[in-house]
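Task card 7
Instruction: Convert sequence to structure tokens.
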Amino acid sequence: MNGLFCMYKGYKRRNAKLDALVKSPPAYLAQSSVPLVNQTFQDVEWLHVLKQLYEHLSERYRLLSRVILARKLHHEHFFSKTLDYGHAQYLAKLQREKLTALRALERLERRTAEVLYQQEKWFGWVRQRQNEEEDERAAQAAQVKKEAAMFKRYRKELERRTKELKKKEDLKRQEEYLNEAYRERMSQEEEEEEWDPVEDCIEDERGTYIDLIKYFLMLKDSSEEDGTEEENGKSSEATGAGNTNAAEASNGSKTAKKRAKKAKSSQGSTETSTTEANQLGENNITMETKSEIEKRLREGVEYAQGGGLLVRGTIENPIELAHKTAPIPEEEIKTLLADIAEIKHLLFCRLLLSHASLLPAALRADSVEDFLNDKEVAAADLRDLCLKMEKPGLQEVRDACADLIRGEEEDEPDQNDGPVDNEDEDSEARKARKEMRPRFKHRRDAVPEVWHTKREKEMLKRRAQSRKMLGEAGATMVDFGTTNDEGEAQAKRMRVKVCGRYIYNYPSEKALTRGGWFHFSIIAKDSSFYDAIQLCRNWDEFFELNVLAIWQYFPAAKWLGFIPYFQFDHAAKTSVHHQTGSRGQGRRSHAMVEARNFMCAHIKRNDAASRRFIQYLSVETSLVVCLVRDAVTGKTLVSPPEEQLWLLREKSGLGRASKNEWNVIAQVGPKFFEDMERYRRWHFSFNEYYDVYVWDAVPGQKFYNLHNTIQGLLIKAHRFHSVREFYEVEAPILKTLVRDKDTQRARDAKPGERTIYDSLNSADTHFKSWNEKDEVIVDTEEDREARGTFYNEADAAEDRMLFPEELSGSTNELFKENMASMNVFEKRGPDFNRFAADLDTDEELESDDGEHSEGSLCPSCRGSGDDHDHNHHGEHSDEWVSDDTDADADDGWFSGPLAEYFAQSAASAERGNQAIDVTKYFKAPPELDPANMEREFMSFIDREKSKVFKEGWHKADLEPGAQLKYSTALRMVKRMATYNLLQPPARTDPFFKFLKQSGGVMEHRRVVPDMLGAFAAMSLFFTPEFLSSDSGTEFQDSLLVKQAERAKQLPDRRRYDSNKYMPNEFWKDWDTVCKRRQPYPFEWDIAIRPIIAHLYKSGVITMAYEEQVPGKAIAAKEPGRGLDLYIDFRQLVKTVDMPPELQDPTKVTREGLLNTARGFARANPNARFAVLRIWSAPHFYPLMIGYDRRWTVSFADAVGRHWEWKFIPKDMPCSEWSIHHQARLRIRPYQASFGKKVIVKRDMYLVMGEDEVDLLKLAAAVTYAAQTEPWRLEIDLWRSFVNVDLAFLEGLHHAWMD
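Output:
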């Protein structure tokens, strides 16, 4: 009997067993009418039936596999390639039956898991794993291809094996060899079981996989073999075994011996080229043998140089490491190899942990060898393990590196690793409020307020699914069936013993340590730094990894630091301007293309330096334009005007270029965001960052302009005072690193060694840098101050205004846009729900849940003056103080005393003895006709604007103590108004009658409150008994009513003169600086930067996106005062042409007013006077500038940033004319009643009364006229003097009457 006969005999025996098994199925299958291919086993409820079915199908699948293999061997040896006599068809039938049995087994296992889960409730993880395996059915063909590719990589070893097998086959074909084999076999037939070549082929295949796994685990290495080629087996077609013939099989009875001859089958991996490794996919790596790793660490590897500028010979990039990584000492290599071997074992254990069918055997085994020798481990499972071990994923390798350092007791995952979001309102509340508030919407925004990339959406979706599937805290990757007393499954984090090694049943969720990344870089030798970035858990882990890579800490070829994820730097080459004039033979034509450089990058979220950087970047509009998006919320934090979003545009045609419109080719928006996501080479796996897009403000610039601007702002944001401090951000890492003296390799420092940080801060270390003009910048104190390169005193003064929360010790470092009320109003518009609900601006809108809505954008500027929220006014003003004991709202006196007053007025009106029917002015009619609707709507808009404007104006008032004075005046007026309402109506009737007779009163719902407020403001100076009442006792010592003492304290304010009337001597210092081209005086910068920052935070100025601006901010001194802010608009003086209807206020002089008052006093012996000043801030008037005219009052500050005013600055040429005109317009409707008793001088009214009663009536009327609709102007009581005589008027300092 020879090998061919044994093959034939074994083939027939298995066929007979298979036929017998099919004819005698279990009772369930025999009685079922559903064929096996459609059987789901859903009606089986008993475990013993499921076990019986499992045993039957398993044996059936095993026999089918062996029959198919034997059939292939039989067919190859007994039939020609062209004639098979139906055997191929029969083989195809068997393969279909095998597939049917396999699918039936899968469905049976799923049903078994369901029954077990229902009965024991701790097999959820089995179901999860089986679901995953079922989802991978479509990848079976790819799995086979991977297997073939794996053996292809070992082709040299397999070719050597094939040659040996061919040689042995030739020997076997010799007659003597066959006869001897026949005699030996016949003599042994009675002593032992017949040899089966099919079983030997299966065992041979299993042994090959085991040997490969051992090589991957570094249990074997090429150095352990003798290098001979005598002991090789298995052909290149290892999986199919189709090339094995009967003669080969006849010599393979000793399978254990054959397995021992495959020791070198895995050496083919050492021949894998770099090109092949790159073809493995970006998320996989190729395993190396121990000798390969040792050689690479000992000799170093060549760096894979990328693009960009890299300066050699610096402390970061030594010359010794210009082209190759530094070698590692032998002692350290031995330790690293031991660690890597352990990591590979942990990787193997974690792969087993995720393999449901292999996990029981892995839990039983005490070592890897025991597991591999377990007969229950199928060859197909070993094949899958072999493929995974040969090319493990980068995430799997990272988890294994983390497992190496995990101890027996592991803390819960650090909650701080996740994103920090300390927003004032949650997303649901913001969404609900947004839906409740209708806004103006002219068109769809080019940049949405909230936007997530597709990748971020997928990441959020996966996390949500993971939380839903695994639960919240305590959820595990693999549930090992812990149940409570009630039999309910309890998810638990735990350590399990897999193949003799303890491992947690979930991957590490913490940041990987430095040592872990070092091991990772060695194992994943073909990975790049970009691959490592995607595996970081949070920003801090990424930052440390980035710093270590910059300092060549890792012995890897592609780990060379970090760059922004995308940038365009060819704007200068792309921009083209071609234009022909009209004097040539052809027509005038033009062709223009403009491009802007841009950069896309990420910065850390919830970080003080990042917050400052975004703030600086957003106001640097003269050089750059930026857009910032929060990756956590998707909210756009900073966005420029739509006309500034373009990156590439063109226009061409005939005629003048100025008359043609630009065609925008590319701009920042959702499509641009998606393009950047597609083009970038790396991504984060976390969202703890801000997405920043920066581009040039001016097209066609060199890229270094953009680069230098960003670098300069980063220096300021990190508050670096010198070049040496550049390394302070990296200090915690550099203090633990040292450069090897011989190889310059960066490694962990040992106790007592001089670290890199020590070298940087040594007195022997000097720093120099060069600018774009090739000028050497030496790091000296004088140079820093002159160039403004580093953080200085002016920056610190500005930061105190921009970031007041830093002074309070707030831990919330999230960036928040400037939420000044004016900015919010411009962005969102008014709350139209208030208009629809017929609410006055000072009334609250109730939401569905009974809480007040955010309809009021200016809660601190209500008529009551209480509950103000003006904090952080810095060094220029006191905090706004409110009286909590008197915190009753407006409706306290509008619904109490005022309601009673209205009732009395209505009764008096019916009797015909009421001076004015106030009830018709109190509330609008329930139903408005269309003619009045538009006026009511515009009145509502004006009232909303007035609230918003007043809040911003008073916050921007930099006069010392201004906010406290204003708050006090409002409270006094409110108390006075309540006091007046409690008095007999005869007190207010003359005032109401006077206004009624003047004919200037317009009907609107705020008429009566405005009248009473104006009358109360003036009554403060005519009602001394009020100060002795309970309501006014606390104000007895107030300087507001002690006018003589107040007049002696001159206002601490800059002069009001505009540039046109400013004396030339005032500009002398600034003109000297300009003529001599001297640097901007540093003390000026310190003085004006915080003032500009305060105005910006208040909302009265904003960034200007203009390339050229007409003004320049300077600092100057007036007698008795320090440096203050002034704007040089002198170049506009000659361009100003005032309309004829405007009067020149300079013609009304102080002496002229006093002469008029003297004449009036002579004619009226009891004459009393009032000087009423319209409120204005030291730097601007409360007069709005049209949006399209703001550029005319734009200016540059000391560092070149461009700003524009929203309201008329006092420095604007002829600004006095504007406020003088507005003051005249306010009293024009009442001029007939006022006569010559009221005179206007710029922002001041001189009111002359024949006596106190007459003056009270006139002064209150002037106050009402100034303060009523559109409610933007106010009488500044602290700068006004009421009910004074001529002598007092003559004694007033010119600062009060000029």
